[in-house]
Amino acid sequence: xxxxxxxxxxxxxxxxxxxxxxxxxxxxxxxxxxxxxxxxxxxxxxxxxxxxxxxxxxxxxxxxxxxxxxxxxxxxxxxxxxxxxxxxxxxxxxxxxxxxxxxxxxxxxxxxxxxxxxxxxxxxxxxxxxxxxxxxxxxxxxxxxxxxxxxxxxxxxxxxxxxxxxxxxxxxxxxxxxxxxxxxxxxxxxxxxxxxxxxxxxxxxxxxxxxxxxxxxxxxxxxxxxxxxxxxxxxxxxxxxxxxxxxxxxxxxxxxxxxxxxxxxxxxxxxxxxxxxxxxxxxxxxxxxxxxxxxxxxxxxxxxxxxxxxxxxxxxxxxxxxxxxxxxxxxxxxxxxxxxxxxxxxxxxxxxxxxxxxxxxxxxxxxxxxxxxxxxxxxxxxxxxxxxxxxxxxxxxxxxxxxxxxxxxxxxxxxxxxxxxxxxxxxxxxxxxxxxxxxxxxxxxxxxxxxxxxxxxxxxxxxxxxxxxxxxxxxxxxxxxxxxxxxxxxxxxxxxxxxxxxxxxxxxxxxxxxxxxxxxxxxxxxxxxxxxxxxxxxxxxxxxxxxxxxxxxxxxxxxxxxxxxxxxxxxxxxxxxxxxxxxxxxxxxxxxxxxxxxxxxxxxxxxxxxxxxx
Length: 614
Prior knowledge:
This protein is mostly helical and 614 residues long. It has helices at residues 10-32, 37-56, 60-66, 74-80, 97-125, 136-156, 161-165, 167-170, 179-197, 222-250, 263-296, 309-320, 322-343, 350-364, 382-391, 393-407, 416-439, 441-447, 451-481, 487-514, 528-558; strands spanning 589-591, 609-611.
């Protein structure tokens, strides 16, 4: 029994969002006059988000509650999941966590493609001295877009697709705790993308992804698009984080004790998502105050009106440094999840790994001010913040030792996922070791604002976390799509990526140590050789991503069909059929063993789960 709201999709959401945005913006401009242009843009973008979500059917259930109508029937709930609805279900507001996982995966890949294109444009500008490719203002906007798109993409790249698709099955649950909120988290994120992409057409923003005040107060209307994007993105992260944490706590199958919980669930659901819930409100608050400065004439960040730019700095970095671990911890968890599978031995130091990731969460909220050593803010606190920043390397190093301990005397199976696991280890070591120089006040004074920082940051987030994403992608792609990725193309992607990545960013370390500043469109001739090498490496890296993209499309369309458990893994997601049924399990599994008992007898077809008695 189909009804009209089930036909609601992107095709109805986009027109309603555009109309609502125009009406909201025009009304605001009419009421406030020409001085309300920033307010009209902000309210118009908010109107777009509400209109789009309404057109998608996201508000149907809240409306049902407000009007005291009967709750949806089981048949209606089943249709809302649109199981078997074909490819079109990915363009609807659907509550099936597996569909939402695929939606996150595709959107994340699109974000990486757009952000990667911006990176190619940046390296084109820096290929030779002279600022010949773009005007400086355009270049600054490209740098800012690249930064915020890649940061947003890396925040969701593991917890979005794999946290949604894999975590409920891993813990023996039939769905997420709040299926409608799960769908809302994705579509709220989706609404932020066109808002951000409007920024270049509104004059751009010259602030980079950090959007420092008071420069942000003086920026063109493109800054309004940026701040609304952050508010929408932060709302999405909050909804998704609350959902996945609640799912992991309350929906574990019988026998799934805390010490039997897969390490990926600890990393992606329990620690990283909790950290995101703790720190993202600070960035959202910073954007709200910026929006008030720009639309209502307040002076939170304007010194002439009694405000302080240090207020913005503190609010931003209260999120900005822990956000690195919101990105990195899920990658740690992927590495530790895959190492036992491809080493064919138990995870070394499971409880130690859990304790270390928890310690990272606690310490990460105590280090934010090391980004402000050179600002002059509270210089008496430089020592304590230097200490906490160096302390966080201890639990991070312990996680690395857990990985090495798992590898020790293992029977290594060098699949493509395992290659990316190993690349995470050597790249993240470089990122971590170079981070120690930036944690120390004297060396930070010399290196702050240079391309050395850019190289360190990319070794941490791209060389580390992105390699973790690639490992997860090659590992779980067969379960998510029912197809195997091409092994030969995967190995080409791996080796070209490793060589090109290290060429690019080792060259950046070199010019950064020579003194080249970051975020500049032109530079001295003494930095020309290093920048030329970095740009060539970046272009080759872009070519490797094209190989990756071709592998995805060709394998998804006509790749070899995947068996249910191609890796002979023991966690629950590999014990269910491929494709995974709508409710994951016919009967609730009962967990009787640890998920990393490699070396023990092979599991039954049901894996580590025994069926509960009828």
